[in-house]
Fold this sequence. Notes:
The protein is mainly α. The protein has one domain. It is 42% helix and 0% strand. It has helices at residues 8-17, 37-50. The protein is elongated, with a radius of gyration of 18 Å.
Amino acid sequence: MNSYDGRVASNFIVQALKGEDIAIYGNGKQYRSFQNVDNLVEGMIRMMNKADNFIGL
């Protein structure tokens, strides 16, 4: 990941390493969800293997 690509995670890390204040964009009430892709895929596979009538809802 490029350090200056504008993503939340890279911005946070770069600012923290530089000892800068962490930027909050907008009004600060936005939500961010961070998910490890391996965990997401494993969870989906487990759910599909367990549910007899899994239809993806």
